[in-house]
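Annual report, structural modelling task.

Input specification for the nicotinamide-adenine-dinucleotide complex:
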Amino acid sequence: MRIDLTGKNALVTGGASGIGRECAWVLARAGARIAVVDINLEGAQQTVHAAGGGVALRCDLGDPEQVPTMRDRVVSEMGGVDILINCAGIISYKRGIGAVSTEEWDLVLDVNLRGTYLVCREFIEGMKQRQGGKIVNFSSLAARVGGIDAGIHYAASKAGLIGFTRTLAKEGGPYGINVNAVAPGIIATEPVLQQIGGREDAYAAQIPLRRLGQPQDVANVVLFLASPLSDYITGAVLDINGGMYMG
Ligand SMILES: NC(=O)c1ccc[n+]([C@@H]2O[C@H](COP(=O)([O-])OP(=O)(O)OC[C@H]3O[C@@H](n4cnc5c(N)ncnc54)[C@H](O)[C@@H]3O)[C@@H](O)[C@H]2O)c1
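The model returned the following structure:
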């Protein structure tokens, strides 16, 4: 079955690289018109260019003042958002609570958790008015089992997103808005590969499916959650981890 998102507008935060970029491409291939929002404008522009078109915008999601401005620009360019993928995030590796400074804690929580809240707050009203929408938030395996290499601040931000997702799902349900989260395991993107540097085989040996995940593995699930195939799923957290966590 081919998923057809023709006529839908999809906004992907964090789409300048890694998983977000792959999500933008998968949604564009399915026919959606894409807006890519990232602190890295050049990367966002490259994503849009490679997708064959769309809107690329710079926005620092850690800055509450920039988010309403970004919303206004997206609405004026596209008219509204049907699909919202909140992928932007900072992956921060720290060992031990004492290694995390207050500033680092605030930065990671501000971007990962508060940033998702700010973007959802800006776009959910339009979805309510249109009586429909799909929101996908990015949690992590770190929220499920505790951080493996990721720091305690990162795990806390990603665990917070699970409660956030479920609560927003209850609010959005009566309006036909599905709000779900994905919880990727170890996905081979730049920050992850830098961290595990050359030890891919040792990591893969701990994974039942015996390989690291690829951005496409996550993007495929995001596509499903953005499509009518998932219309009766809301408030769910889908684990994409090769079997590392099966709860
Ligand atoms: N790669 C993994 O193994 C893994 C596992 C679990 C969850 N995740 C989550 O998946 C998402 C994507 O991760 P990735 O591996 O593709 O990493 P990545 O670093 O390639 O992508 C993150 C993107 O977020 C953007 N970003 C960072 N701070 C921002 C800000 N203040 N405002 C706007 N954009 C900002 C970055 O510029 C980048 O394009 C993140 O939320 C991450 O926590 C990744």
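The first strand starts at residue 9 and ends at 13.
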